[in-house]
Amino acid sequence: MLFKFFLFWVKKAFWVFLSLFISLITFFAIRLIFGSMSCQTGVTKTF
Fold it and tell me: Quick check: 5 pLDDT over 80?
């Protein structure tokens, strides 16, 4: 019974961690894309 409960919490924590990890990755990817886009526009403006 206790093991089942523990397993349930581990699964819950795993999914929470996974969703946080995915959101963090998407956030960094969006930042990287926008950063490269702004850099490209800056380069085109200077040239």
Answer: yes
- Based on DSSP, count helices (H) and strands (E) in the chain, helices before strands: 1, 0
User: 43: burial class by Cβ within 10 Å (0-12, 13-18, 19+)?
Assistant: exposed
Residue with tokens 């963090």: 24
User: Which amino acid, residue 20?
Assistant: L
User: Residue 10 phi/psi, 5° resolution?
Assistant: -65, -45
Average pLDDT over residues 30-41: 81
Single out the residue of 34, 14, 10 nearest to residue 22, CA to CA: 14
